[in-house]
């Protein structure tokens, strides 16, 4: 081994000598810890209680209890607002997923994106020009990607455009959109409707055309257009198409021995009785507005026969039927009876002419039936339509009694009509019945 350096040993010894004769200085700021006296048992319990209070005060539950104890009303309102906000957020998310996204699940994403923007400017922030722009873009994209122009989805978009025009009172443009859609659909039916593989599609497109024609009849008869002749033409076409198609399907089912389910599988589902009745009722109202009650009566009767259940609309139909019956001439009443029996609007009337008294008695019977049906209905089935129907039917019974010369019965009915109309806030009914009652009393 090599020897240590010459200066290494003397330096270590010198350092040891310095440490032995000069100890580390003591810090003057460090004081010895004073001994703590042991607390008494009472002090221990008090300290433990204070510690528990501090722990409780530091928790969320403790803070909430203390805050509620000081401000019970404010805390309750705040909690209610928070819960309401949370529920609203959850419900909004549910609506978005259920009604917004689900409504467009049949559309490709590119088309659905445009339609969502269009509906936003239709239902949320009404801006017709922006909505129309996005509807057009949606239809253009649908055409580019090859969607069927006569599918329910695309026809539905065009019908929605027409509805938007109607909502902003652009009735002429609304009619124009429906005219184009109806003409295109009828052309498709003429060219391809009879093909074997298009049976189901033919039924669906034809039903759409009927609905479009009924809507056109309504729009042509509106105050902005008021073209009664065209309105009647569209409604007559709709009713004739409905009846012809029903007859065709009945004949086909009988000739081939098909059940209703088999017929629907082969030809597709046709319009329900309620939908057929609605088209008949629309034409009846058109005739009624033109005082052609002998044409309106059988249509109201057929619509009533097709109505599925007794509800408030049944009350309206019965009352309309009663009104039409009472406003016919005896000769027209014979025609109405022939139509009602045959259920064919093209059949010529025959048989004896009924008397005016019989006609008014029939009207009274239907008006009273309307009141009886309304009396059987309870909420929620009974609604405002029932109340209005009762007021009008009671007034009509007064007029029918007046026609028959029964003044006392007429006064009674007019008084009841005034009470019913006033109770439901139907001011027009109050005015009409009051005026008839004043004239009747003045004639005494």
Automatic annotation (TrEMBL):
Chain intervals with Basic residues compositional bias: 22-36, 48-57
- Can you supply one Gene Ontology CC term for this chain's record? i-AAA complex
Q: Which GO terms describe its molecular function?
A: misfolded protein binding
**InterPro entries given for it?**
Mrg3-like (IPR040201), TPR-like_helical_dom_sf (IPR011990)
Which GO biological process categories is it annotated with?
protein quality control for misfolded or incompletely synthesized proteins
Q: What domain of life?
A: Eukaryota
Gene3D superfamilies documented for this protein: Tetratricopeptide repeat domain
- Region annotation Disordered: where it falls in the sequence: 22-57
**What's the name of the protein?**
Uncharacterized protein
| Source species | Oleoguttula mirabilis
